């Protein structure tokens, strides 16, 4: 593996690891020891398989404690002290939520690939080597685990999950059957292009689709076990949060760079309704001669036209804020995977060719 890799954004990340395994933890003191042992076993199996092919694979483990109120941190430190796998325990100041804990682990990761899974032992770490091989063989940017035989309750878990998965797939257009499975493998250069906020970990495939093509997102069956220790942190109430988050996801995925189109279209639609209503009222007044001063349609039509004007103005303001955001943060509205060049490009100084004939892009630098 190269120790100096350039990702698709043109930024350099120095890494000597193949895979970083990120595990958010919250009150999992009974599970963490068994989990660490299972991850070490998966790593040993992956190293054996790589050695049989004349290769080598290196992992690291990052445990992120999300403000646990029990002895999770101590149990994690005790478990890590007994293993040779490079491990870090990241302790959050308080409980920020699974999404924030996952983002903290991703920020700390140094691997070319990043794997995430839950800390409750329901995800099987033995699936990780197989998923890594599948991702690399199919040149994917994200591989999502699908819990083929889920060991969860029907009413509180399976039915809400079934509804949420189909709703998210329908709205976002990313056809993943199990958005809720935390066992995923990412290319670090891709996942670092997005920021996970709120409770957006459920929508990671949709966010990934905003920086890479959906055909580079795959899904594979994985094992799923019943919870052995503690209590589930999920309930039926999460269905409401999923619906609210889905509205935000839809807006940011389709209208982040053009919010004026969203508010403008909505404003024109509302304005059209107002014009029709006011036209009917005016016809009644001027042609039929009816009194319109107390008619509800007159008030509703005027309100609709006023709302239309407000929405259009709000869209213009949103466009201005969007341009300020992209200009001030130096963010781009697109992302590039790689750039190829020919011999003439090397002669022109746009690319460099090393001793092996490999052509490397020379990034364009603006003058100071």
How would you summarize what this structure contains?
The chain has 368 residues and is α/β, with parallel strands linked by helices.
Category by helix and strand content:
alpha/beta
Number of DSSP strand runs: 11
Q: In order across it, which strands form the biggest sheet?
A: 5-4-3-6-8-7-9
Percentage beta strand: 5-15%
User: Any idea how many domains?
Assistant: 2
| Mean pLDDT figure | 81
Reported by name, the CATH topology of the largest domain is Spore Coat Polysaccharide Biosynthesis Protein SpsA, Chain A
Low-confidence stretches: 1-14, 361-368
- Determine Rg (CA atoms, Å): 26 Å
Please describe what this structure looks like.
This protein is an alpha/beta fold and 368 residues long. The protein folds into 2 domains: 250 residues, Spore Coat Polysaccharide Biosynthesis Protein SpsA, Chain A; 71 residues. It contains 11 helices and 11 strands. The strands form 3 sheets. It has a 7-stranded mixed sheet with strand order 5-4-3-6-8-7-9. Strand 4, helix 2 and strand 5 form a beta-alpha-beta unit. The longest helix is centred in the last third of the chain and has 34 residues. The N terminus and C terminus are likely disordered.
Structural key phrases:
11 helices, two-stranded antiparallel ribbon, 368 residues, Spore Coat Polysaccharide Biosynthesis Protein SpsA, Chain A, seven-stranded mixed beta sheet, disordered C terminus, alpha/beta, 45% helix, disordered N terminus
